[in-house]
Amino acid sequence: MSERPVMPRPRTSASKKPLLISAGVALAAVTLGLLSWQASAPSEEDGAVHQGASAPSSQASGAAGAAESEADAALAQLRGLARREAGDKQAVGRPDAPVVLIEYADYKCGYCGKFARDTEPGLVEKYVADGTLRIEWRNFPIFGSESEAAARAAWAAGQQDRFRQFHSAAYAEGAKAKGFGPDRLRELAKEAGVPDLDRFEKDMDGQAAKAAVARDQEEGYRIGVSSTPSFLVNGRPIAGAMPTAEFEAAIEKAKAAG
Q1: How far is it, in rounded angstroms, from Cα 148 to Cα 139?
Q2: Same domain for 96 and 138
Q3: Mean pLDDT for the chain?
Q4: What is the mean pLDDT of residues 107-111?
Q5: Which of 99, 104, 132, 212 has its Cα between 20 and 30 A from that of 119?
């Protein structure tokens, strides 16, 4: 369950090759599922061969080994997207937590709101509280000017340590229907407990906010994100607001893998 807009992709710097290209587009698509943002299906038991199928040739085995090595390199690059910055205003959890969940989201995305209301609080209570999980949010506005404004507003709220409160208010039931015009964003900031609303508005419209949102958005496009919400759990993708059990399983698996 994810939402995909019909809009052009922002132009990125020519000096930054897409991560998918650097790792091999076809390889990443097949092995990591980035183009569809679906987690890979469980592998068969080691050594298992389908009935009636012949054993792979040495050439095929060699190709598979090379592909696996490149896939590992791609996964390492995706895992490296976790910033783990101690002062990150758009993150919760210990910087050294063994598992990092990155969410690319838009405040006008209904499924993002569903995740924020139905799944995220439980993950914070169960895994962030005990030091297992760190959540890093990325603003990924793809539904027009109000999405961009809401993303900058969330960043501005974070400058006064109210990002999470603003995040919750903007994703509250019915909040999306009220839109994200200037007056509404100020109202949400007040609801979130932002102490200096004049500073909030100044920060929201400043170059630093625009640059921060652009950084998040470019990162998402660079790895192939095209709909929201999209997630990485220690580099492995999860597409859409999936059931809580799927996120818990991914977190447990990542924790066990170390």
Answers
A1: 9
A2: yes
A3: 84
A4: 97
A5: 212
